[in-house]
Amino acid sequence: MRPNARAALDSFRKPAFLKPMRDAKPNKERSPKKPASAERQPGVRRSDAARIPGASVHTSLASEIGLRIVRGDYPPGTILPNEAKWSETFSVSRSAVREAIKMLMAKSLLASRPKIGSWVEPKERWNLLDRDVLAWYATSPDREVFLKTVQEFRHIIEPEASAFAAMRRTEEQMAEISQACREMGEAASLQERTRADTRFHLAILRASGNDLLVPLGVLIESAFDHLFTFTTRAVDDLNHVQKLHEAIEKNIRLQRPDAARAAVRKLLANTDNVIKSR
Amino acid sequence: MRPNARAALDSFRKPAFLKPMRDAKPNKERSPKKPASAERQPGVRRSDAARIPGASVHTSLASEIGLRIVRGDYPPGTILPNEAKWSETFSVSRSAVREAIKMLMAKSLLASRPKIGSWVEPKERWNLLDRDVLAWYATSPDREVFLKTVQEFRHIIEPEASAFAAMRRTEEQMAEISQACREMGEAASLQERTRADTRFHLAILRASGNDLLVPLGVLIESAFDHLFTFTTRAVDDLNHVQKLHEAIEKNIRLQRPDAARAAVRKLLANTDNVIKSR
DNA sequence: TACGCTCTATTGTCAGACAATATTGCTTTC
DNA sequence: GAAAGCAATATTGTCTGACAATAGAGCGTA
């Protein structure tokens, strides 16, 4: 990687891509020990928000462009800057740009044709249930709406998933569910608790016996990530929530689909209240 | 593209990638008018199954590798052949291979690290709700199971989506739904009818007012694609199905969520029977 | 006006080089 | 002999520069 590529990727996070760029043309003498961050000009704001320290250039680039698209910088139908332009803007090679674009094409955010360029696909084609796209989508102007949408979706999915789990879970899957439930109760920190909570719900999806429900786990993960902000929960509330989870666990264990469904509905109603009361 | 690249892509469809390859090293004189298909050795079976005539090399490659992974040729955890190997196997450049792999990484089928290589991700991480992955998945050994899974999923999603649509549809969205319903009735061919049918269900998802439901349309499309085989339907059955659709349309129009939900359930039950009776 | 030609901008594909990385096995040391 | 550090090595990551294929745009001609 050219020494200042990552830096450029950072500094251009917010101010759009139109900014003039010093050092646009190749540095012939590949400088040995990157003084990149040292020689960054002071005026450029260095955003740490979407910084991905260990990530490769094309991955970072894909995140950057993907975020811009989802955010609405380039509305559907817009022709994006061409590959050479991106390459110049971020001081990365065209190959890196292409690999980034290929990733976005795989998520149906983009499509392209020779001589035309790359354009943003209509929103309906976006694969919103993709982990990355969802993450970009979640950074939208107001999280409130996003959270509401995800929560509504959970109401559709999770009760039925639990009912199926009650009917079809194997002993192994049951053990996973039970363990996650137990670990929720025993968790020392709230973060640890949230992780166990996530595992609990994902395990139920897996136990539902429908392969297509499993990928929806990303939604739950995303929901918990953003619900984590609503961290101000009283202890007795936590106890109550734990009881609700245990009720679900019990009804799946006893193979009572209807009761399991009802128990999940109760839990979701509780979560609704937590969100609403904010 | 090297003249015989596409041909190699084809001929290697089934026989795995271990086969010896003539013409592995670059042809210096870029031959002007590809005699590719002419000089293909007779023994190699040329599969037309997953042939994508207009597609680019990296897209075809991604389909080929993706299909193999989903099909189970490389179980999760397996380290794939390295980039150079793929490149040699299919007589394409390493860049093309990389772009293909990047696309599969974007779908969470793969991950990679330097010095290790690329490996197949655990199945739970696969984005099964992705259009391509779903298509590959649908070519699995027995379609029966796939169809059953999708149909079950529709039972979870569509009744609720319709209920929401009944509550929140705009006039424009209603018009879309009604038009699709009408065109179903007036369709001349069965294919035309199926297309209208698909549009009908997708329009309902859009009208539900929940952005996350829209991407699930790929499932419906896929279901109809594969249901299309069950094409032996009597005329009076078609009439009955049309009535069921009209009931849905009516209840959404009259903004009756519960009735809309019930109407969808009825339609799905009918579809269940069609599938079962095969 | 309609058709067809050329021009040209953009993605698609190729080739070859070097960098970064982390496993593997070797070597050293205790 | 075991543990720790070190070097060798295989693989992906990145860059560069070239040419091919494609299809829109503009022009000229019938």
CATH topology of the largest domain in chain A: Four Helix Bundle (Hemerythrin (Met), subunit A)
Q: Which CATH-level-2 architecture of the largest domain in chain A? A: Up-down Bundle
Structural class of chain A: mainly alpha
Beta strand count of chain A? 2
Level of helix content of chain A? 55-70%
**How many independent structural domains of chain A?**
2
Could you give a short account of the major beta sheet of chain A? Answer: 2 strands, antiparallel
Rg from alpha-carbon coordinates of chain A: 23 Å
Measured between the Cα atoms of the first and last residue of chain A, the distance is 46 Å
Mean pLDDT of chain A: 82
Oligomer: homodimer
Q: What top-tier CATH class of the largest domain in chain A fits best? A: Mainly Alpha
Gross morphology of chain A: elongated
The helix/strand order of chain A is HHHHEEHHHHHHH
- Taken as a percent bin, the fraction of beta residues of chain A is under 5%
